[in-house]
Amino acid sequence: MSETKTDAPKKLFIKTYGCQMNVYDSERMAESLDGYVQTDRAEDADMILLNTCHIREKAAEKVYSELGRLKPLKELKPDLKIGVTGCVAQAEGAEIMRRQPAVDLVVGPQSYHRLPQMEAQVRAGKPALDTDFPEEDKFAHLKGRSTARRAPAAFLTVQEGCDKFCAFCVVPYTRGAEVSRPAERVVREAQDLVERGVREVTLLGQNVNAYHGGMTLAQLIRALAKVDGLERIRYTTSHPNDMDDDLIAAHADTDKLMPYLHLPVQSGSDRMLKRMNRSHTAESYLRLIERIRDVRPDIMMSGDFIVGFPEETEADFQATLDLVEEVNYGYAYSFKYSTRPGTPAAERAQVDAGEADERLQRLQALITRQQRAIQESMVGRDLSVLVEKAGREAGQMLGKSEYLHAVHIDDARAQVGDVVPVRITRAMTNSLTAVEM
Ligand code: SAH
Ligand code: SF4
Ligand code: F3S
């Protein structure tokens, strides 16, 4: 036999931090590296990539501690290459290699289509660094999607970057300016995904509703709704100022568009919103939700909040609690403000950390109470579930409702990829139980 060791595929381990866009990017990076198969064990890998997030201080520090843990692997296996990709790579660049010399490769979110050449370079023993914002569209230069069978729900990036410059946020610096992918390419990629078994796509963008790839997001959603075999469409994350009338209307007239909307507001205090450079008010946000609920009364609302933003007083914080009470969120993500170097808010008077912690706990208690009440109100209701995998108990299948609840179906007949009607029998803290109808 002529089989030699060099013919065996090399192993790639990718660890993904941060938002859903990083999940999508990790898939594309893995698919772009010929000659590698993925492993879920770092110890077995010939190449390790950490696809990183810079949104909060803790997220960035995690990367350095993980690199510290990985370093000894390199001593055991001198051919192992370690790379840092994503938003920390973009923000810190060469500093990463200075702080952790075990790193061979650093590539930012807008230039990872150059990863194959960079991989060859590090294999030849030369470190590789690329944090460009290139003119060319990286997606047009990436290899086509893998033909392997896929899970029924997939992410699909349609828009990247941000021009909004909220005073606390690193994203405009790490992802660059707002750019949209051409609609025909998005539709083609969705068709490809459907052929591989996908039934639901979540369209991703830092400001996905600012999409303008030759059409608006509402038009893109309607075009995707015509793709046979694609059953469900979602999109995230939206900015309140980019919610146009047509997108609101799509929630009423496009059956495949799911009744779920993640619409971050950050604070309920106009004073804070102004200092955050959010360019909307609490009132305009509430009126917007009212308009959406007028056409789609059952829409499940989700949001993001920051507590302890510089100069936030108890009265400002109370306004956030009031807004949460008024909206009644099915899901909400709240964060303690984290100082990010290079952003305008980093220079301002910081709120006492203990005070901020205490506010975060109060906000999270309120949100948990709302979520629980909404979960419990689902008992006895008929929902539809996209089945994603087998559940832990015998005969059970696990999937998502139209409102994005995790639903366990007992004694299921349905198979992975089916969308089935169910009746909810029980509400747990993080999931629902149901029987098939
Ligand atoms: N593009 C989206 C989400 C950006 S990041 C949007 O505009 O809403 C996701 C969330 O992280 C933000 O909505 C915000 O709530 C939070 N976040 C961003 N920067 C932060 C910081 N410096 N400190 C704490 N939370 C932050
Ligand atoms: Fe960050 Fe604001 Fe842009 Fe969202 S809109 S990514 S929070 S700057
Ligand atoms: Fe984090 Fe970058 Fe996403 S900073 S939240 S990985 S856009």
Break the fold down into its secondary structure elements and pairings.
Elements: E1 10-16, H1 20-32, E2 36-38, E3 47-52, H2 57-76, E4 81-85, H3 86-92, H4 94-99, E5 105-107, H5 115-123, E6 128-130, H6 138-141, E7 153-157, E8 159-160, H7 171-174, E9 179-180, H8 183-195, E10 200-204, H9 217-225, E11 232-236, H10 245-253, E12 260-262, H11 270-275, H12 282-295, E13 300-307, H13 314-327, E14 331-336, H14 353-377, E15 382-390, E16 397-401, E17 406-410, E18 419-427, E19 432-436
Parallel strand pairs: 1-2, 1-3, 3-4, 4-5, 5-6, 7-10, 10-11, 12-13, 13-14, 17-19
Antiparallel strand pairs: 8-9, 15-16, 15-18, 16-17, 18-19
The protein binds S-adenosyl-L-homocysteine, iron/sulfur cluster (SF4) and FE3-S4 cluster (F3S).
CATH class of the largest domain: Alpha Beta
Number of strands: 19
Number of helical segments? 14
User: How many structural domains are formed by the residues?
Assistant: 4
Descriptive keywords:
437 residues, Transcription Regulator spoIIAA, Rossmann fold, 5-stranded mixed beta barrel, 14 helices, binds iron/sulfur cluster, alpha/beta, binds S-adenosyl-L-homocysteine, 35% helix, 4 domains, 6-stranded parallel beta sheet, binds FE3-S4 cluster
How would you sum up this structure, described in words?
The chain is an alpha/beta fold and 437 residues long. The chain has four domains: 121 residues, Rossmann fold (3-Layer(aba) Sandwich), CATH 3.40.50.12160; 114 residues, Transcription Regulator spoIIAA (2-Layer Sandwich); 113 residues, Transcription Regulator spoIIAA; 55 residues, Beta Barrel (OB fold (Dihydrolipoamide Acetyltransferase, E2P)). The chain is 35% helix and 22% strand. It has 14 helices and 19 strands. It has a six-stranded parallel sheet, sandwiched between helices. The protein has a five-stranded mixed barrel with strand order 15-16-17-19-18. Strand 13, helix 13 and strand 14 form a beta-alpha-beta unit. The radius of gyration is 23 Å and the shape is globular. The protein starts with 9 loop residues before the first strand and ends with a strand. The model has no long low-confidence stretch (mean pLDDT 96). The site of FE3-S4 cluster has 13 residues, from helix 1, helix 3 and helix 7.
